[in-house]
Each structure stands twice: as structure tokens, then as C-alpha cells.
Amino acid sequence: MKRLFLIVLDSCGAGAMPDAPAFGDVGVNTLRSCATSKELEIPNLQAAGLGNVDGLDFLGRTEAPAAAVARLTEASMGKDTTIGHWEIAGVVSPEPLPTYPNGFPEEVLAPFRAATHRGTLANAPWSGTEVINAYGDEHVRTGDLIVYTSADSVFQIAAHEQVVPLEELYEFCRIARKILTGKHGVGRVIARPFLGENGKYYRTTNRHDFSLEPPKATLLDAVKGAGMDSIAVGKIFDIFAGAGITEHVYTKGNTDGLEKTLAYADRDFHGLCFVNLVDFDMLYGHRRDIDGYARALTEFDRWLPKFLSKLGPEDAVMITADHGCDPAYTATTDHTREYVPLLVLGPKVRPVNLGTLPTFAAIAATAAELLGVKLDTPGTSFAGQIL
After folding, report:
1. 320 backbone φψ class: left, alpha, beta (φ>0; ψ -120 to 50)
2. Are residue 29 and residue 75 in the same domain, yes or no?
3. pLDDT above 70 covers what percent of the chain?
4. N or C terminus: which one in the chain shows less Cβ crowding within 10 Å?
5. Whole-angstrom Cα distance, residue 8 to residue 287?
6. Together in a domain, 261 and 327
């Protein structure tokens, strides 16, 4: 293959895994919840064979799918963005990244306060939109930083852009990233800037993630090491801490991400274009907005034919997800432990059903074989089955 596009529909889960109850998730299914919405219109994904994926027949099976399809099992012990993307790129994480359901200990906060010369507020799991309205006024008055977490392995710092300039907030995140290592090595430190006043605060699009580096070489490293293009669209650069990436572009949401991906499809490159579409998760999954999630899937579906028309004879696209975030699950507002779907499309791809595979890392193994690069991964390539 000359060009391989790998598109992650962030959080588009395909039903609860057997161990989901151990993660606090019972009966979850992101796509099934979206299928209850009248806003869901995905004829192109259905024609590709999304409904042929194990457990997704409620979307409607097709006798002549255009794609090779599979359901992927997460082998890593987590349900977060970092671990999910690492596994897609070939690295399975047998141990979960640390989480802080009771907030961060003083051994983390004390050196952080000392280095930033600012106090901290909140220090507990919070909804990002709720925490800024609960503590925004005090933050504006004192300059203290709003520090919070979630069910994920994250250390989040919220600050008003007119109180803490963006570059200063990013520097505070770099300070936290240096502190949060070893047993406190969280997956991501996230800058959460906001604006507004008097309890009517809103987050801006200037979020920035400072991720833990993957513990070993990923698909991105293998592609870059072979002298090929390794292009990151959206938050991929942040998730992998820049490792293995030759070129990157940030996005301001799904629509922008789709436009930028289309622009790369018009370019002559050799290698991998790795795309994350964040709105599914950030705007609709966590906010438990079923119709919004369905509309986002509909937007992607309408975009897909134009993108596919730009694939050359030596190109292919893999469409998958990194975890679930069931918009109908009200027990929490966090990610959900789910299988993920996989669709592989391209002029040379044979439409076969691969069933349920044991790890997301099958994507990395297959991508490496398709691009002709060497990668040490526990995943098994299915390239021979789909070509």
C-alpha cells in the first residue's frame, strides 16, 4: 500500500465486553443507543457492512458489504483514550494507568503548587463544564488553578484565559507532566482553558493534551523509522506525545477534522495518516447527548463517499474507535468498556467478515504489513485475509 488512512471515531463503541461490569459498565452499547435516535442516517456505513460486525445486526446487515469488517476486543486494562490509541498502534497495556477517584495526594499537589506559585481548587473527579462554574468565580478572584480529574487517567487544569494566559497554562501543564511520573504517571495532563464571567463560564477550543510517552515503539515509530510519512490529524500528536510523527495538524472538532483529512487525501504522500475525530466523545458521549452523537455519525457518513472517491489503487482506510462512551448510560458520564467496530475499505480490499479479534493491536500489525514496515506487537495481521 502507498497510503493508509486510519480514522478513529472517538468512543464509538460496539457493545459491552464481558468484563465491562468490573469497570462499572452494565449493558452499555454506544452504537445501539445512537440507533434509537431519529437523527441517525448512515446508509454508507451500512452499505460498507457496519451492521455485519458481530453484535451490530440491529443496524441492518447487508448481503454485499463493501468493507472487510471485524469487532475488536480491548486487551489492555483500561477504557481511556491513551490506552485505546496505544493499543490501536500496537502497544497493549496489561496494567491500568493510575486514576484518582478521591483526588490527587499532597505528594503530587505540593510540588505542583510550589513550582507554579499558585494554589489549587476542586481536586476531585468533576464534569469539566460543571467544575468551571462551581469554582470559576473563586479562580478569577484568587488566581488559584482548578485541578480536577475523571474516571480516566487524567490531571486536568482549568483556568480563565484572561486570568492565566494560554502559554502560561500550557507551561503549568508541562510542570505537572514532569511531576506525574512513575506510580503517578497519568495518561494525560490536559489544559482546559475557559472564558465567561459570573458563573456563566464556557470552555474554549484551546485545549491541549500533554501525554505520557508510549512505553515502547508504536506503528507511528515504525512508519517514521522506515522513512515514510507519519501524519497526525487532531489530538493524535498529543496522545503519542509527538513520538513517531513527521507532520501534524490540530483540529477544532469533527467538521474541521473531516475537512483536513479530505485535504490529505488530495495530497501525494507515502505512509500513514492517523486521524482522531474527538466530538463523538467530548461533545456527545460524555454529555450523554444521544441525538448529538447520532448527528455526528450522520455527518461522517455523508462525508465518507467523497473521501473514498479520492483513494487511489494503492490506498486503503481503516475506520475504528478507541473505547465506548454510551450516550444513554446514566450511571456515570465517563467512558464505557466496549468492543469497537472496524471497517477496512479500498480498491484492493476484499469484503470479508473477520469476526471478533482479541486485540485492537491487530490494526497495527495489519497496517505495518500493508505498508511494508517492521513492528513488534502482540497483534496478528489479517492483511492476507483482506487483500
Report:
1. beta
2. yes
3. 100
4. C
5. 19
6. yes
